[in-house]
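WARN retry 2 of 3 for item q-0093 after timeout on previous attempt; input resubmitted unchanged.
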Amino acid sequence: MKSILTVLVAGLLSASAWSADLLEVYRMAQAHDARYAAARAERQAGEEKIHQGRAGLLPSVGLSAQTTWNEADVRSTVGTAERNYNTNGYTVQLTQPLFRWQNWVQYRQGALQTALAEVQFGQAGQELILRVAEAYFNVLNAQDALDAVTQLRTAAAEQLEIAKASFEVGTVTITDVHEAQSRFDLAVAQEIAARNQLEIRRQALVQIVGRDPGELARLRAGVALQPPQPANIDDWVSAAEQGSYGVQARQLQRELAEREVERSRAGHYPTLDVVASYGRSHSGFTQGVQGSTRTEASAIGLQLNVPLFAGGGISSREREAAALKLKADAELDAARRDAALAARQAYLGVTSGLAQVDALEAAKLSSTSALEANRLGYEVGVRINIDVLNAQSQLADTLQRLARARYDTLIAQLQLKAAAGSLSDEDLQQLNALLATQ
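OK item q-0093 returned
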């Protein structure tokens, strides 16, 4: 009996050798996760925005060429002549903007869009860390649940054998046997459900990392969880309102909206360009009048365009941009509030999780003592079989809840860092140090 009790208490908290830890699984996810790959490609696309914006400030060069075959009958009082000839030529034109205010604004927008792409990729990196950690610990939690119900089934099977033996010698009633059988059957059903849940959780992890990572490293036995630093919720809220990736993205989008208002207003401004061109043309004809001409021409000058009226389209776009600027202001305000709420929830998740872990640690000791007392009482005849079975179930449930509380607290710690925009690979390395690896 002592051996079964020892296994039941230590089963969820023992460490073994595993083939992959959290950091290794995260590296696999970086290489194979589809959502992260999409975010990486989106960042690469965003990096081109600054080059596209700069293009509006640089000269543009174009080449045009043409060739035409002409057939003409020329009739006059002195006779008729045919003129069949080919005309061809080409023109090269260079245009250098001198003053196009909308192009300058668009260049600044390109820089902002590139910065936005970087922020969004950073946010995707944080989300990947959270998704990997949650999926990893979900697998561990499902494995813990399976271990617990497996050990409970083993203990229930032993108690069933004891009840049957005691019934044969007449020390217990058939009711005790039926109760033990019922608990054993229930444990078997729970074990089947736990195996199914473990497979579901494992496949969710496989979807992120691209392949089955094998067995996973578990938390070390008796690992101590640390409270958040700084231990002040207002400091975390302030950091989230300023540094959250969601807030950073909305700030850049607000600046883009401001620039769009400026760019739309620039549609009323004149533009001034330097235009230079060079061209050659050749015209020749045969039959009848013989001869050909060749022309070369070059030119350079200033070209001024002044918009006078465009059907009200420019003014309409200006009003549209102003309205979208107000929308961006509201979204930035909402992002700050969301970040503050996320920081508060994560901070309270950590602090309440630590309190739950302490309470469940105490409950584990109490449940262990209760099981020992009920086993001893059953042996001496002051407790009945159902008391032992209830104590076994209570201990198994306490151990599962303790493991779940630890995982939830660790995830809340990562969520708190993410809310403040400071979650990084280093945080994952620190968390990985809590795992038992050999």
